[in-house]
């Protein structure tokens, strides 16, 4: 499998660090095989590379202590949230210590007047939103999985709500992080705007643990909208659906979600949930606003979509019907896996300028057909981001090769269209060659920053830049 | 005056670079005193420090050539847009070459379907919006001055529309830049989202020319809203006005602008424009949306504001009346200078969490009174950002000292309130000690990045980090 090369291990340093951390952390320190394997397991096709130990710190100070031990003995530090990343981010190609942050799961402050909150990195998205609900607030970023907010920041996650609310880069005010020398920094104050020096907040967001370990996050919050409505519409073609998306965005209709499901996905959803949606491309939408605004927005969308051949428009403002409509979307991963029981699902993640979306999606469908792969497509199409879930038998070498050819094709095509090989999953181990294809010499300046801030290369080594950086 | 220390000059290198660039650029190369002085002049109280020469490149390739010459001979490179920065950003404390980008003023592409455009750095905000108007699009960031977009990106500018549309960090998709070694990079593709490696776009935005020279900018655009309405309301106190702002933001009313003018500013506006606004704190608002939405939003604001004692509500959806209402705000700089003809206006720029805004503004008013300074306040209060324009006689040493005490007080107070010494103007030469107060050891990691990307310290030296970094 690609990009999971083992890197040279510092056996002596690892042994020493293990001894020290075992002493310090007692029963919060683990070297059992099951625990180690669990911390290398990710929802990816990349081969697992287990760490040498897993430690569960309970405070920033403890994280700082761990990193200091690892810096002294030149041992890799791999942060771990919920393990839902998709590109081998939690693998330990050179061994080292997995720092599991699930015990740092406190919501430290909710500043309702300022629409922000401060959380530890192990707090999950759903945990936060459950906590906030009674206060009339919510955190909008929804990558699908119930990921930890530290992990979401580390990979610059986004998901279905990004078309309206942006990505993690747009929803973090400040970070506390432990740097490679073990020192603790805060990237910014809690003010909504700042021009105070380099944007260290945005530098750490998406750095995948390679520059520092995030130990606290100050997040922007949103008021729960007065009204939420949902709508769906079927289209005769991907082209028509994409045209409807483009026009909707151009008209400035503030859709909160606008998701594309291709024919295959609709078929999977019908089978999985017993629905009878027309088995043609489908757009699923959500609108947030005042009672009158959400009705107006749904109507405007309906009218735009009808003009390009949309049919079977259905809209609802009741929570029950809306949840039913969106459940099909949320269950899609499981539904599509049922298209080929026992297969491994490999998610691609390209993002292109929206004007190229139809071309990119139909190109992906054609390529999958050419390679005889089952690869249903779902997309956060308001942002030009879509995922093929390639369903393959990992024991069939030829299928694996074809899946690799398919993912390479998608990345190359996205780059050719002025898009990116990764809209929201990150580079990790899986996308390293595409990053270089995409940004060329820019990657050398990224690597110079990595070297400047982590000269020993102990922070999640072997990610983003590859073995030798 | 503070923070305008001269730095050691590399006389030999400067002389050599001047000779080479004169040869290469002919009549686009200037060493005349008037031209040099003009390029050190900024709307600031910081003493001017002229460059040794000014050069007008016409292309990225020419910029790259200039930087390569300067790198070879270790000569400072100071980018220049329109000279409207406020913290000594265009000063040349160690001499060097001012790179005037006004001839790089082409709008290279408008991708209406993708709501983005590509511009050279010398394009100004007004030039772009004039060009876009017929296409039904606009670029929302409005820092007041008709600044160049390259300069706005360099200082992470924002202004009156930021409460709705964000700052430059939120409205740039990608940058082309010439790095300190003269190489040209592109920070990202044109896709709306990306998780492809470190966020070099956001790292360069706000780096004030210290890491690279921005030569091309891909900007997000907005559709011109169907309707724009404006409103104003007077308040018995700063507290009441701030309470109205907080509730408006909490309710999620998507105000496009919400500006506070204190009593002194209203008096200045009345005198300057012949208005008869009540001389109490005033909020001035703008709403963007559909015809029905802007009316609904103005009404909701009016009702919120009335609850906290707001009076004299006036709203309008006609362009003529709206422009009249906003002209008073736009002319405020000139109007307030008339409060003390001949005085120099010194703008402060703190930004605090919105829950601390009333305390920060009234504290500033009290401190100005205590120091016997005339310092009217205007604020982008939806973001917690406000400016005192301190009106002083620069020949009166005691007044200058008191103004320094005032600006120091404001920065310290903002930092104490978890806010920042600069919401949108940047650090430049003027705010260096406050940056360290604000972010402490974080500044050392910023400096490490600076050293890694510009080891010779030729890119706008003496800014952000001070003489020795």
UniProtKB/TrEMBL annotation, chains A, B:
Its cofactor is FAD. The keyword Transit peptide applies. It is an enzyme of class 1 (oxidoreductase). One of its GO terms (molecular function) is D-lactate dehydrogenase (NAD+) activity. Its EC number is 1.1.2.4. InterPro entries: FAD-bd_oxidored_4_C (IPR004113), FAD-bd_PCMH (IPR016166), FAD-bd_PCMH-like_sf (IPR036318), FAD-bd_PCMH_sub2 (IPR016169), FAD-linked_Oxase-like_C (IPR016164), Oxid_FAD_bind_N (IPR006094), Vanillyl_alc_oxidase_C-sub2 (IPR016171). Residues 47-224 form the FAD-binding PCMH-type domain. Transmembrane segments: none annotated. One of its GO terms (biological process) is lactate catabolic process. Signal peptide: none annotated. Keywords: FAD, Flavoprotein, Oxidoreductase, Transit peptide. Belongs to the FAD-binding oxidoreductase/transferase type 4 family. This is D-lactate dehydrogenase (cytochrome). It comes from Tateyamaria omphalii. The lineage of its organism: Bacteria, Pseudomonadati, Pseudomonadota, Alphaproteobacteria, Rhodobacterales.
């Amino acid at each position: 499998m690609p990009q999971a090369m083992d890197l040279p291990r510092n056996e002596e340093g690892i042994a020493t660090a293990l001894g020290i951390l075992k002493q310090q952390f007692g029963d919060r320190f683990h070297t059992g095989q099951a625990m180690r394997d669990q911390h290398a397991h990710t929802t990816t096709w990349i081969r697992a590379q287990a760490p040498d130990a897993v430690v569960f710190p309970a405070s920033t100070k403890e994280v700082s202590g761990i990193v200091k031990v690892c810096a002294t003995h030149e041992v890799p530090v791999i942060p771990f949230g919920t393990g839902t990343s998709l590109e081998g981010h939690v693998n330990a190609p050179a061994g080292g210590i997995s720092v599991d942050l699930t015990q740092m799961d406190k919501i430290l402050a909710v500043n309702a007047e300022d629409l922000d909150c401060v959380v530890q990195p192990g707090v999950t998205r759903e945990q936060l939103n459950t906590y906030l609900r009674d206060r009339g607030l919510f955190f909008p970023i929804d990558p699908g999985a119930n990921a930890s907010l530290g992990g979401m920041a580390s990979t610059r996650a986004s998901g279905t709500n990004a078309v309206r609310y942006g990505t993690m880069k747009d929803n973090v005010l400040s970070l506390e992080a432990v740097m490679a020398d073990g020192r603790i920094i805060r990237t910014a104050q809690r003010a909504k705007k700042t021009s105070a020096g380099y944007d260290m907040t945005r530098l750490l967001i998406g750095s995948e643990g390679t520059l520092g370990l995030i130990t606290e996050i100050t997040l922007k919050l949103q008021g729960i909208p007065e009204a939420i409505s949902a709508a769906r519409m079927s289209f005769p073609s991907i082209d028509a659906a994409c045209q409807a998306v483009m026009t909707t965005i151009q008209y400035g209709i503030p859709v909160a979600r606008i998701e594309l499901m291709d024919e295959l996905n609709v078929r999977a959803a019908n089978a999985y949930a017993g629905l009878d949606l027309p088995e043609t491309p489908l757009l699923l939408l959500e609108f947030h606003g005042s009672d009158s605004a959400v009705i107006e927005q749904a109507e405007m969308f309906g009218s735009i979509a009808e003009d390009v051949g949309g049919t079977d428009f259905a809209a609802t403002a009741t929570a029950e019907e809306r949840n039913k409509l969106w459940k099909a979307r949320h269950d899609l991963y499981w539904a599509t896996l049922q298209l080929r029981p026992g297969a491994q699902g490999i998610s691609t993640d390209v993002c292109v300028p929206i004007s190229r979306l139809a071309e990119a999606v139909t190109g992906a469908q054609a390529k999958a057909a050419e390679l005889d792969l089952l690869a249903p497509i779902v997309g956060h199409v308001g942002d030009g981001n879509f995922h093929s879930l390639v369903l393959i038998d990992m024991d069939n070498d030829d299928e694996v090769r074809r899946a690799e050819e398919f993912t390479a094709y998608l990345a190359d095509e996205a780059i050719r269209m002025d898009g990116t090989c990764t809209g929201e999953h990150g580079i990790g181990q899986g996308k390293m060659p595409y990053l270089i294809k995409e940004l060329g010499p820019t990657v050398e300046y990224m690597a110079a920053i990595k070297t400047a801030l982590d000269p020993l290369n102990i922070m999640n080594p072997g990610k983003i830049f590859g073995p030798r950086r």
